[in-house]
Amino acid sequence: MSTFAAVSENVILDGKAVDKNGNALQAVENVSDFEIWLADFNNNNTSPTYRAGVEQFVKMFSIKDLEGLKVVSNKHIVAFKKLLVEEGRSNSTVNNRLSAVSSFYNYLIEQGALSHNPTVGIRRMKNERDRVKSICLSPQEGRRVIEAPEGSSLMAQRDRALLSVLFFTGCRESEICRLQVKDFFAEHGFFILEFKVKGGKRNRVALHNACAVEINRYLDMAGHAGDSDSPLFLPIKTKDKLSQRAFHRQSIIYIWNKYTRKAGIVGTSPHSARTTFITTALENNCPIEHVQSTVSHSRTETTKMYDKRKVRLQDSASFSVRYP
Question: Residue 20 in contact with residue 7, Cβ under 8 Å?
């Protein structure tokens, strides 16, 4: 089996694998170790970032096959780490690249193809994640972005609904891409969005009425509310004509950049909506446990990293101290 080369004539879909001759077993055998390793990740976000990490590593040292991987030592890993730092990569990105290479080596060791992992013992970069880096918008700026799609076209209404979901739920971009029509429904007097989140879990979020109104308007215009298995948000091929494929993260980034520029806001990303949601909810005295649950964080410490509220001098603990 080739280590890196993909076999283009092989197709793996819905648990069934066939090659161009219809041979299911042989098709799987022909898929590279690299592609099998990537396919085994449950998180859709891990696979592309780990792919990029290993591809950069093997390109740096012109590694083509298992024989090339066998001669890699700790010195090569340190050189790779140094290159990433010199490129200006963040500490988290450097660590992610090293984790990718380490994971691929561990997979090959488990398969009996290699005997050692050269990343063992290599020091990782200092963790800087005491605060997320995404910029927090003010509530007024958030409103400007939501209202930036002007007009009565299907595209404008879809984009208002999509931006409303970002700002009123604090969800991740990838979670919007996975939403289906059936994930938007009414229950106990509330409109609900049920997100598919990290770890294969589901997270139900009761929606602010302003967000639910925009989604309902979009579905009424789009006409696919009765297709429960359809992606909730659909690309538009031509004027007011929908595609049936799911949204891609790059499409959400494009929409975000389009309307933030129109609103006169720079230096942000869709993740800024998540930061804005968390900070605004905490500023309005929502218990942090409720915020944590809504954004599907496993720990409150993670939620605190998104808190960009200004320091309130009047809240200093010094004013609570008495020495009678």
Answer: no
